[in-house]
């Protein structure tokens, strides 16, 4: 048996509690840890950094130029 191909012996621990993951909730060890991770994403605890983008030239074309004809009533 080739140790490099043995995935069971070097499984990464649960990212929440560091226990061994279960097959059902992989990469987590339980539903609780999976739910904790989801709550962190939804709550904004985790964030993917992004560089600020420069304004597009097209944004000037989308800017309102005055009142809408329906607003003149």
Give a quick set of tags describing it.
single chain, 73 residues, mainly alpha, elongated
Q: Would you summarize the structure shown here?
A:
By secondary structure, the protein is mainly α. It is 23% helix and 0% strand.
Describe the structure.
Helix content is 23%, strand content 0%. The longest helix has 13 residues, at 31-43. With 73 residues, it is an all-alpha fold. The chain contains 2 helices and no strands.
Let me know the average pLDDT.
79
Strand content: under 5%
- Helical fraction equals 10-25%
- Summarize the helix and strand pattern as letters: HH
Helical stretch tally? 2
Topology overview:
Elements: H1 31-43, H2 59-62
């Amino acid at each position: 048996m080739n140790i490099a191909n043995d995935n069971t012996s070097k499984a990464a621990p649960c990212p929440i509690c560091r226990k061994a993951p279960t097959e059902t909730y992989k990469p987590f060890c339980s539903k609780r840890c999976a739910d904790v991770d989801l709550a962190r994403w939804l709550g904004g605890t985790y964030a993917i950094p992004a560089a600020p983008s420069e304004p597009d030239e097209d944004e000037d074309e989308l800017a309102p130029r005055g009142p809408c004809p329906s607003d003149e009533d």
